[in-house]
Specification:
Order of helices and strands: HHHH
Oligomer: single chain
Low-confidence stretches: 33-44, 144-163
Radius of gyration: 22 Å
Strand content: under 5%
Helix content: 55-70%
CATH architecture of one domain: Up-down Bundle
Mean pLDDT: 76
Distance between the termini: 58 Å
Structural class: mainly alpha
Number of strands: 0
Largest sheet: none
Length: about 160
Amino acid sequence: MNIMKSKRFIIASFFAAVFLMLPVNELFSQRGQNMGRMGGTGGGQVCSTLPGITQEQRSQLNQLRTEHLREMQSFRDQIDTNRAKHRELMKCEDSDRSAIDALQNERNSIRQQMEQRFNEHNQNVRNILTEEQRAVFDSAERGGVGLGVNQPSGVGRRNANIR
């Protein structure tokens, strides 16, 4: 009888541990991880550790960062809306292939705009920095739009090979 109770306890403990780990997985899957390069609540905080950074530079960088994050959020919202439309079209029995392709092309266009804005933002940041600070900034590892740090293109994107 004690063996049965022990087995039940072990099984219950295992499921309790798994159940408690689920919220941690959700926490790390949220957007915004590794996004903060200018300090604040984001991830990398590269600019806060630049050599000889002045308060004026910090202020300019924070303003650039705020504008950039606002613009990127707008792009993400457009992509989310596009994905919702795409899902609805994919659920239809008589789905319109040309409409599905048009949504995919629109999403690719938005991603391209995001990449362009990301590059512009980096150049704007570099223009604020001194030569020494640029060297540190340029050597810092960072991910591109929609990518995690040090991940090749397509990693983490669902259905990356489906066009």
